[in-house]
Target: Conserved DNA-binding protein YbaB
Amino acid sequence: MTGDPTADMQRQAAEIQRLAVEAEGEAVSEDGAVRVVAGAAGNLKVLDLRLNAFQLSGYELGELIVETIQAADRKVAAELSEAMTRVMGTATPADFLSGGVRRIDPDSEDQA
Model:
């Protein structure tokens, strides 16, 4: 801290921006068929399909890819939340980084 609140805020903002660019979360499906590396804001950096992935139906593989991407997204959000907490000095919940938008369940009638 420099004693200048504006300079401190600018330094924190620059550090958070750097962290957001560098943040990554990796997830591997339970059977090892799918590996994903995701960046902040849902940026998919790596999608690796092993040979056993092609033994699944298209539907099963699609579901497995989506689940693995979501797991990687959760990891990167947790990592970024922890880093932001260190920089800002106050807790930043991981769901804050996802925009707090809840997932829509197409089978649910209650979408309010």
Remarks:
- The longest strand covers residues 34-39.
